[in-house]
Amino acid sequence: MNLYFACSITGGREFEPVYQEIVAALMADGHEIPTSHLAQSEVMEKERILVPQDVYERDVNWIKNCDVLIAEVSVPSHGVGYEIGYALTIQKPVLCIHKKERRVSKMITGNPDQALTIQEYSTVEEAIAQTLTYLHNL
Fold it and tell me: Which long-range contacts (CB under 8 A, 24 or more apart) does 110-117 make?
């Protein structure tokens, strides 16, 4: 499947190792992830050279062309929230995953859209297993 992986960039990178493990597992499972670079440590440097309009157009096109949006939402991010809302608006399935003890916006947890699934995890291994199970059950 073609997956859009969404994660915090400017909102904070404390979950970067989690992003990297999830993306690596999804790619090992055979999925295409055009946003895999977002999990990399150099993402801030690479994204800094792009103008905002180019990032917006690129990301919207990737969302339009993806089969599923997977969002790690443990770290609040305006961009990730926007991407989730946009994906749901164009009727893409969305999986939001987050660490158990993290608070997630009620705009996500309270959203009744049938295309939205929210799961919490304790370990990165659990996050990967939940994500792979979700994708295999689509």
Answer: 113/88, 115/88, 115/91, 116/84, 116/88, 117/93
Q: Is 74 helix (H, G, I), strand (E, B) or coil?
A: coil
pTM higher than 0.85 for the full model? yes
- Residue 28's alpha-carbon distances to 10, 35, 40, 87, in angstroms, are 27, 15, 16, 24
Pair of tokens at residue 92: 């893409």
pLDDT tens digits for range 13-55:
899 999 999 999 999 999 999 999 888 877 666 667 789 999 9
Contact of 117 with 95, CB cutoff 8 Å? yes
Does residue 7 contact residue 80 with C-beta atoms inside 8 Å?
A: yes
Domains and CATH numbers, the chain: 3-137 (3.40.50.450)
Interatomic CA distance for residues 63 and 37, integer angstroms:
15
Kind and range of the H or E element at 123? none
